[in-house]
Amino acid sequence: MPLSCTNPSGFRFFTIMAMIAALVLSLAKTLVDKVPEPPMLRFCMINVLGFFLFVVSIVVGRQVTEPKHQWYNNAFSVSGIVLIIFSSQVEVDGDIHSSFLPAFYAIELLTVILLAKKMRLQPESWTELTTMN
Fold it and tell me: Which of 43, 88, 91, 125 is the most buried (most CB within 10 A)?
């Protein structure tokens, strides 16, 4: 039986996924609070950590087939997304903000697009099943 949010076991794994994401965000915030004051450094640390978590979870998720492990992997994907959103809330002032951040986001966007191009949509065994029908 697949672990979807509509059955009790699936919902339990969904709540675990949400809790892992919240704890990763809290851990990242406490680590970044220890960093000295320049806001750009804080922004970069949060953003790079979120991007790293997202990319690693996508790459690792290619080999994950068990539904329970997919939920755990999704927790780190969601954590990465939340950290990137959280990094945009860090106040960064000055001219570097207007010139550096668009380039920073463009590089991240291109990396995600290149990574997405290499992903397949469904396992090959499912492809065989659909061609037989």
Answer: 43
Which residues form the domain of 127?
8-132
Whether 25 is covered by a domain: the verdict is yes
Output the 3-class SS for 67-107. HHHHHHHHHHHHHHHHHHHHHCCCCCCCHHHHHHHHHHHHH
CA angle, 118 then 125 then 75, to 5°:
55
Task: Report if residue 71 sits inside a domain.
Answer: yes
pLDDT digits (tens, 9 = 90+) for 93-128: 665 566 777 888 888 889 888 888 877 655 555 545
Residue 1 resides in a domain: no
Measure the CA–CA gap between 91 and 97, rounded to whole angstroms: 9
Q: Which residues contact 3 (CB under 8 A, 6 or more apart)?
A: 9, 10, 13, 67, 68, 70, 71
Q: What is the pLDDT of residues 53-100, one digit of tens each?
A: 988 888 888 888 787 788 888 888 888 888 888 887 776 666 556 677
Question: Radius of gyration over alpha carbons of the chain, in Å?
Answer: 18
Question: What pTM was computed for the model?
Answer: 0.73
